[in-house]
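Show me a record, fold above all:
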Amino acid sequence: MNFASDNVYGVHPRILAALNDANSGTTPSYGSDDLSKRAEERLSEVFEKEVRAFLVTTGTAANGLALSTISPPFGAVLCHAEAHAAVDECGSPEMFTGGAKIIGLHGPEGKITPALIDRTLKGFIRGEHDPKPAAVSITNASELGTTYKPDEIKAISALIKPRGMKLHMDGARFANAVVGSGAKPADLTWKAGVDVMSFGATKNGAMMLEAVVFFNTALAEDFVYRRMRGGQLVSKSRYLGAQMLAYLEDDLWLRNATTANALAAKLADGLRQSGRVRVAFPVEANEVFVVMPSGLDRRLRAAGAQYFEWMPDSLDSGLRDDEVFVRFVLSYATAPDTVDRFLTAIK
């Protein structure tokens, strides 16, 4: 009963098969192969717009490199206080940007709002003594399993664009956000004002695969150098291209996310019905956050359940001494009976 992360599960068989197919013969290296070129074309089709897309191996690199194109070293990037860029990437965005300040905002349910951003920007009153507001980064789906809808993203864009700021999206679980919101990829990104995004695949069935996707293609002018300097230009790039093509073929990426989201909804419904726990946030993707009695938590772990304890300051209602706040993550590869066995264990 492993709900620790969608990273704990393996590679989808169709992606493994694509890697095996790409393994024969010879092909140009360093991104010049046909598979990588076709992957960029396919991403343009997915987003209904010609994009520039650069394949990389990790979400950390994707975020850092993307932010380096929209913030100078003296810039400020606003994001949610629990965003990976703020707390999970060991200063990588600061390194790639050359020193830009990542400022985390405590927004409700894992999201930041125009009002919160506006209030923060009004605090930049010291001229050059402050970093220059350069960008906003939103995570979709968020770190707390909620999703931004197109109108919410448009509202953020409408606030910051007149100030000369750019908008980045961390889409490590973008497929789950697309399925959970019911919106098209284009409506959640460039049509809502997103300039550049980190398009995730690793958590949703790939081996090691992310992409930096530019909707504002002028920002990609020097990105080939940034990717090279950042150690993310893979010599045998065909293996990244093969993964991306298989991931997008026949909407595998969306079908995987649909499975994971449905399992999360099933788990959340069962937890609510149990009467033993309280679900802390709306379940809109593949993560479920729960407050439960400490004694129940100990018994579930003793029964073999695996999941992470989460930071209690995410909760508006607080936490009693005899409670724990935990996260469950569902994957396309989570066996359906895993949820049933877990709910039986709670009973």
The radius of gyration is 20 Å. The chain has a mean pLDDT of 96. DSSP finds 14 helices and eleven strands in the chain.
